[in-house]
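Handoff note, outgoing to incoming analyst
You'll be picking up this chain. Sequence as last confirmed:
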Amino acid sequence: MTLQQQIRHLAEQHHTDNIAIRRHLHQYPELSFEEKMTAQFVSERLTEWGIPHQTGIAGTGVVGIIEGQLPDSRSIALRADMDALPILEANDQPYKSKNPGVMHACGHDVHTASLLGAARILQETRLHWAGKVKLIFQPAEERLPGGASLMIKAGVLDNPQPSSIFGQHVHPPLAAGKVGFRAGKYMGSCDELYITITGQGGHGAMPQDCVDPIAISAQMITALQQIISRNNDPTMPSVLTFGKINSTGGATNIIPNEVKIEGTFRTMDEKWRRDAHQRMKKMAESLVEGMGGQVNFFIDVGYPCLLNDEILTENARLKAIEFLGAAQVTDLPLRLTAEDFAYYSQEMPACFYRLGTGNVARGITSPVHSDTFDIDEDALVTGVGLMAWLAVG
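Most recent structure output, in case you need it:
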């Protein structure tokens, strides 16, 4: 039996166990930087399978090492995130969340279960492959500054230093059994904007005695959109969205003293990203002050652009075709959602791919970050097997 056949066989053989692991994780979700029980569960499984590891990395991170017994000095890293979201689950499955208001609505339970399953296979087949595989169970992908950045600062990419890193993410639009890849620029950077405009409130019938921060806000939002449409290269994906506008006050005829605005800015180019930050701040300050108000414009700089190494990703795509068949492997479009896996991609050759988890016939179609998100658990066979194969194939 070839190594590929062994991995495929073990992914099928351990499927019931992997479902149980995923369901346990789904029932006990924990928010970012609070993944203590999850980390303990991961550590217990690694211990059970004889895999050496460290805990407490960047708070709740777990890092394991599996050494192949054939001679080779290479080192590959596999990463899974462990945190959940502050969402009240609306599903009525026996494995629904037991922590009210917290839910694995982004599939991190699947990611962790897949990496655990892959680790078990790699441990059981270590006599037949070469090099080292570093297992990175990472906290806090969902919350700035991102667990990946903290894991890197804690030295997760040292001793040994991996030559490349792989990560996967659930993707409900793809059917279970399928995977998707995109080489080069794949996901956007993500910055949070927090803007406070201060004016002078008063009676709505006497605006001449006021400085209206709502009117100023309307002008500012429109002007900021012009920066994106008039200064950015039209061929470079970029988006500015404001999701919240709140003012003090409490009636239709009151001009408030203050307006707070929150939004997100995303792009695919780090140079333009930095330039846009300065342009937005300068535009806001000059416009607001010119209209008699004051502005505090704070940018909480978030995750960078996610870059999939061209060679590594193309090789991974070919390995996936070899492992799953060409019909199960698809190409992915660009997207401006963000992922803190991007920090790894800025440090070394990286490949972040999508794991199909949907099943239209069974009604499993809800998107991530929704209160009805779930997966076709047959996806775990693919998630576990392919991750192991990419590490050593």
